[in-house]
């Protein structure tokens, strides 16, 4: 029976590969760019020729669109790394590094940021990158008619002043220490003003940036083709073309990597960690990421109006078991919003699976028959974890029902407050403010738990105004303590980020923001 | 001598009902596949009823030191991704599946039979333009899509899944019974009943209904099989049985991600869905042949 089964599996995979290879051979280069750079875009994208000149990347989903100022999906950001430059970058040690901005100065009151820009940079359409372009980009994000998801990150900007061709001044209405780190993500990505004015909304389908690769063609749900930008301001990338393909199913993704259809994956299933580590043809890179995962408890509904119950859940869960069984070591237990890779990570340890203490808390609460429903996304890992927690909580006398809800519906119910508990995490930001403020400040946009604590609000506000890291660390430590004690959100684990690639793929810089930076990659 | 005459007498005056039953059983047992199907069906029912006695482990007990173990003497079908015994879960899953099959068909019968009887007996506007067009509309949906939509509206869970499947199966019963009743209402015995002044409900319930039982039974048996598949499909998609209760469909979904590492997680529930549905269908076919007097 097993042999038959394996044979069937093999057959299925071979069909899959046939399907994939025939898809990649029907390519004709459609050059979207104009100006002085288009004559070099030679296009050869048969992926398995002897002289390999295309890096084929497998993503966990199809990017909804390619405009960084419109983007609200995490998967978009992966593609942007090739198409755009950011004003500032972060390196492997999470330190800020110059990219389009070669230098920056912050005034003593923390309100004025003066950026010196890189000279000699052009967009893929030939437009010059300068202070005017920077001004245009920020105004675009702040335009209420454009309704950019970036607006909430840059809405403290009062004005953008052009001081010279390559010098720009950004004035904030109040001090905001995380501002520079905001510029390392999509808000710092510069798009071509000429292209935006020409294309309007269609820019999201024909993106023009300053990045190492320019856009060639996109077939929705199938592939995005990029080719080296010959007018690139830094050293040009070694590989001529990049092809990005979406594979939502983790098994299919890994199978395609092993078979050689793909060169690099941005995400793997945790169960495959061991297998890929052992495979001699695969390089598996591992890095602590910046996000956290856990459970939002609605503090306005029973039984979570009762702090004892929230604390009991916090204590009852065996985080070690979850990270070991579900994540195969690909995650570490979490007790705060700050991952081990962040400077704000607290030094304290909290009890793990203290069943007796949890039982005592349930008794203290004065409630009997404590029960609630946890909403989860229908994914194998989620179900596995939920069932483990269900068993752990039943030991302390709490009944947890599990309800599987489609992701979009779940987000709706989160924002309307139609839930008791929801399993949802956060991908994380370089600055700790991005991991805490929006979730735990009173009435903040993502404060789904309806948590409100003046002390927490005070700490979050203060940490925004101070720019000395040690001082901010002390505030975030205090915050972590309070959040552990109040337990509006049950922190469960911090994921590690994995990038899997064929062993001939070299030069990949693995940064904790989990992005695929193609610029430095080469084949050996 | 006396005994022999007695036997002769019995042979000479055979009870027609007993004879008919004998002939029917004969027809059924001639069909080897139907017998096999029936055997497995009853074996499954037996397993479902005595699940708590049969299973070696608690179906929802998690053992984190024994995750994804291949089949062994202790775990006949291996263990799943959080260390639960798959054999125990498959046996308990039989309970869920049979329950889903029987209850959803029960719902379809409870709603479909009365509507079909009344609609077929009285005919007229309500029958022709309301009930029949309504069943047409429902039948025009692919069954699983309709069940999915209903289950999504009602909310996830086994009870709601059974209601959704029951609703989806109902139009088939309405149409079947209506057709049977229409054939019967023109027969002499109905005419005779009317002539002797019997009330309509007596004619419908006491005279027509028993005559339509054979096709209802066959249809119901086959519907159980499709209801089991529907429940497995809904659970597979997360709308049926909720964790940690074992359902074959949900187990299949769980195991899907581990096909290359631990194929047994999905394999055994898959085999059981296959065998169960096949057995019930074969059994149903056997019953149909058995009840059909035209087949010899």
Automatic annotation (TrEMBL), chain A:
Comp. bias intervals (Acidic residues): 31-41
Limits of the WW domain: 420-456
Keyword Signal included in the entry's annotation: yes
Keyword check for Signal: yes
Superkingdom of the source species: Bacteria
Signal peptide start and end residues: 1-23
Protein keywords: Signal
Entries under SUPFAM superfamilies matching the protein: Periplasmic binding protein-like II
Chain positions covered by the region annotation Disordered: 25-72
Coiled-coil residue spans: none
Matches recorded under Gene3D superfamilies: Dipeptide-binding Protein, Domain 1, Dipeptide-binding Protein, Domain 3, Periplasmic binding protein-like II
Protein's recorded name: Peptide/nickel transport system substrate-binding protein
TrEMBL record, chain B:
Alphabetized Pfam families for the sequence: BPD_transp_1 (PF00528), OppC_N (PF12911)
The ABC transmembrane type-1 domain, residue ranges: 94-284
Membrane topology, as annotated: Multi-pass membrane protein
Keywords: Cell membrane, Membrane, Transmembrane, Transmembrane helix, Transport
CDD domains given in the database record: TM_PBP2 (cd06261)
Domain of life: Bacteria
Compartmental location: Cell membrane
Transmembrane segments: 33-55, 102-122, 134-154, 160-177, 204-229, 264-284
InterPro entries, per the entry: BP-dependent_transpt_permease, MetI-like, MetI-like_sf, OppC_N
Similarity-based family: Belongs to the binding-protein-dependent transport system permease family.
Name the UniProt record assigns to this protein: Peptide/nickel transport system permease protein
Source organism of this protein record: Aquibacillus albus
